[in-house]
Amino acid sequence: MKIILTADVTGLGESGDIVEVKDGYARNYLLPRSLAIVATKGAQKQIETIRRVQENRRVRNLEHAHELKQQLKDLGSVTLTAKVSSQGKLFGSITSGDVVTAVRKAGGPSLDKRSVSLRGHIKSLGKHVVDVQLHPDVTANVSVQVASEQ
């Protein structure tokens, strides 16, 4: 069955792509979730419009991502407090949600916790570097200082 993707589908294609898939996959998964539409002549015209809008949005998003990266760079180091045992180890670990909350409290931009990539688990005091994927082409680094909660 020929379909037109209306959203990015991992392993299949991006929004606006015309792909050939098995009938069951299209009927039972893609079409009910509004990830695709059946390929017709009218749908082709609609996809051209969607592609133009997406191209404009990508440019806007790229510019916005660079602005956010600059804001994060100007922010400097972000401090997080956590409960610590007598040996200096954290009870639990720092999550991406904790980092997002700390950035927001420090006056930084509001981020999505799914865009924050921790380099392993943060389970100790000290300075750690966290990656933030703002756009497929733009990645920012945030320095996180983990301090003991008194």
From TrEMBL:
Residues 13-40 form the Ribosomal protein L9 domain. This is Large ribosomal subunit protein bL9. Pfam families: Ribosomal_L9_C, Ribosomal_L9_N. InterPro entries: Ribosomal_bL9, Ribosomal_bL9/RNase_H1_N, Ribosomal_bL9_bac/chp, Ribosomal_bL9_C, Ribosomal_bL9_C_sf, Ribosomal_bL9_N, Ribosomal_bL9_N_sf. The keyword Cell inner membrane does not apply. Belongs to the bacterial ribosomal protein bL9 family. Keywords: Ribonucleoprotein, Ribosomal protein, RNA-binding, rRNA-binding. SUPFAM superfamilies: L9 N-domain-like, Ribosomal protein L9 C-domain. GO terms for cellular component: ribonucleoprotein complex; ribosome. GO terms for molecular function: rRNA binding; structural constituent of ribosome. One of its GO terms (biological process) is translation. The keyword 4Fe-4S does not apply. It comes from the Bacteria. It comes from Saccharopolyspora spinosa. Binds to the 23S rRNA.
